[in-house]
Amino acid sequence: MARKFFVGGNFKMNGSISSIKEIVENLNKATLDPNVEVVISPSALHLLLVRDSLRQGIEVASQNVFDKPNGAFTGEISVSQLKDSGITWTILGHSERRTILRESDEVVALKTKYATENGVGVIWCCGESLEEREAGKTIDVVSKQLAALKAQVSDWSQIVIAYEPIWAIGTGKVATTEQAQEVHKAIREWLKTNVSDKVADETRILYGGSVNEKNCGELSKQADIDGFLVGGASLKPAFVDIINCQKQ
Ligand SMILES: O=C(CO)COP(=O)(O)O
To answer: Which reaction does it catalyse (predicted)?
Structure first.
């Protein structure tokens, strides 16, 4: 099955009302490759502004969501609140949340289960640190993260996997096409062995980490790279070039 190319923009904790409006205007007037699924993820404070002003055909993701329906959970956002606001995706397990906010593999898996079972798609992130890569543990680390996910999740159809090596995030140090393809292929093989041929075949695996308009073309040609999760460059006009990278 042909997997639809997917480009996500993770704005992280960046942007003001005026700069976010500018990004949305730029996307609204751009000619975008219709064969690419685009999802942008502003901070929680800007979700509604973006949803209300963004063109049809681009979806919006939160950067986190909680795994309880509602109630006394100060500071959290629920899946039903997202859906009520027209937010159809969430990012979960980003390395910044795993490391800085100490979310465990299990917490990430439980949130992913809750979101997917309640109708919100998940861009589920995984990836190794520099130390782990240098110790030759990359595939082990990613496999352990996947195993924790598999322990909770049964419906994989609403999950997009983002492989984001921590050493490549925000550093300008992009993984080589070979390094990225090797891990993406290993993730697909893991899905084939541990979940099913169908899930391995259909699940999009995105690469994230210093993707820009210059390196996206080569990366996009790799057999197991089905798109990108873009941080810094998603805040710039060049994000359009990344979305359209297969056309160039
Ligand atoms: O973390 C990322 C996307 O989620 C990648 O960030 P950069 O593209 O800024 O390296």
So the answer is: D-glyceraldehyde 3-phosphate = dihydroxyacetone phosphate
For the entire predicted model, the pTM comes to: 0.97
DSSP 77-125: --HHHHHHTT--EEEE--HHHHHTS---HHHHHHHHHHHHHTT-EEEEE
The structure tokens listed for 179 are 């390094």
Give the pLDDT band of residue 26 (cuts 50, 70, 90): very high
Rounded to two decimals, the ipTM of the complex is: 0.99
Measure the CA dihedral 150/155/156/158, to 10°: -130
The question of whether 184 is a catalytic residue gets the answer no
Q: Establish whether 59 is a catalytic residue.
A: no
Nearest to 122 by CA among 147, 84, 87, 151: 87
Please tell me the distance between residue 169's alpha carbon and the centre of ligand 1 in angstroms: 5
Percent of the chain with pLDDT over 70: 99
Ligand 1 nearest-atom number relative to CA 208: 5
Q: Which CATH superfamily is domain 5-247 in?
A: Aldolase class I (3.20.20.70)
